[in-house]
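Homework help board

Subject: predicted structure for assignment chain

Our instructor gave us this sequence and asked us to write out the predicted structure in token form, then describe one feature. I got the tokens but I'm not sure how to describe them. Can anyone check?
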Amino acid sequence: MDYFNYRGAELYAEELKVADLALKYGTPLYIYSKATLERHVRAFEEALKGRPHLVCYAVKANSNLAILELMASMGVGFDVVSAGELSRVLRAGGRASDCVYSGVGKRRDEIAFALKAGIRCLNLESEAELEAVSAVARELNVVAPVAVRVNPDVDARTHPSISTGLKQNKFGIAFERAYAVYERIAADPHLKVSGIDCHIGSQMTSGAPIVEATQKLLDLYGRLRTLGISIDHIDIGGGLGVTYGDETPPSPYEYMQAVLSKIGDPELAVFVEPGRAMVANAGILVTETLYLKDQGDKRFAIVDAGMNDLIRPALYNSWMNIIEVQKSADKSEKRLYDVVGPVCESDDFLGRERRLAVKEGDFLAVRGAGAYGMAMASTYNSRPLCAEIMVDGDRVHVIRDRQSLEDLWRGEHLLNGE
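My token output:
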């Protein structure tokens, strides 16, 4: 459920007409619903109610400061993958002690930054990284809290580009090596075993793979306990899918109950790292139709949002729902269009073969754009980053200014030094 709905022929964002917002703030425009974000946070918190837990929002999904601020105000922790993401969390009012730090390529300066900030846990992704964390902790004279990100060789049954739990993926330490790695950690005076971590992929529409992976983690947990190695949390990662079209992913409650039913110890804290499930359907991308082009056997709706604004369709061939902001009463006006952008690439499209009633000057909205939309945006073709706003009932907060042309070359210098 979200708060982008039609009232008659008009698409609304909570209490405001989307068309009015597009006219006032310009397009392309990302619009987020505060009520939807709050609802999704509550859904995960309720799913874990009654046992120790930490919901760690995956910052990579959407790192806007206002979204992070809202999450922090609701008691959410964070999953970060860079010093930049951790810095954003801190700037937004979050605490490093509520953050887990993932990622296969942590630089030593990033490790030091996280340890100085008081990170809750560093998720180790290789034995080489273990050595780096130990060395940095020794230099700082601290003890680093760590977990091993276990690669369980479980198929998440999702797009290959967002699958992370198979042996051929770069993420995590092979399940067969994890026990020995924990022994190394336990023997190192500058490392402290904190938890066990796993993340097998994104946009999972079935709970079965994560249940399979969780069982492997619990088998490892049992072995470590017999060795006397204490584990204070099990981190099942994120990856819960959302509905872009006809997908039917489990609810956060169904997803978590399937996992919790496997975890017998009521004192063992459960960490979860939702990203897409928190923000995807809390955001839309609004774009204006610039031109209609009829090539005989193909029609194009050329819009002002391109792959630089929303790259998922071009990068993953992802299907995202495109709807009219103001619906036409005449159903016979609907035609089949490829919705394409202005970027000079043949793969610059938002959707192919979409049945729409659209005229030049009409606004379209891409649903489910709150995750990996603005977070992956670029200025390719020297196109300024678009604005972002958050709707709160009948109020609007501008949470990112639209870039100016001058912003495009800020920080660059001519050869004469100017």
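Reply (TA_rk): Your tokens look well-formed. For the description, you could write something like this. The radius of gyration is 23 Å. That's the kind of observation they're looking for.
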